[in-house]
């Protein structure tokens, strides 16, 4: 995993876990890699993974079964989508609209590009 300098590593790892859940790679009530396993896999300190797991547990994304490890919460995917959608609408969409305005991009052109994108995703 390539880490960037703009966000704390534990949050980037939490995003990675959320990506796995949202993509369906990790399913609800499924056991996820242990702290040590994920630390080796991502080449980071186990304490960083532990911090990520604690953060995700507070968010309701994962839960722990004593002695068994961490598991994906049944409502995790809904929480992730809701949180990411709110972030996109509040943080990323205004910047997008600003660029559309500055570049004087026609909404019809945007719509056509979006339709092309959707078709490419269905193939």
From TrEMBL:
Matches recorded under SMART domains: HTH_GNTR
CDD domains (UniProt xref): WHTH_GntR
Pfam hit, one: GntR
Keyword Magnesium listed: no
Residues in HTH gntR-type domain copies: 7-75
A molecular function GO annotation: DNA binding
Record-annotated membrane-spanning stretches: none
Keywords: DNA-binding, Transcription, Transcription regulation
InterPro entries: Tscrpt_reg_HTH_GntR, WH-like_DNA-bd_sf, WH_DNA-bd_sf
Keyword DNA-binding: yes
Name the UniProt record assigns to this protein: GntR family transcriptional regulator
The organism of origin for this protein: Chitinophaga caeni
Lineage of producing organism: Bacteria, Pseudomonadati, Bacteroidota, Chitinophagia, Chitinophagales
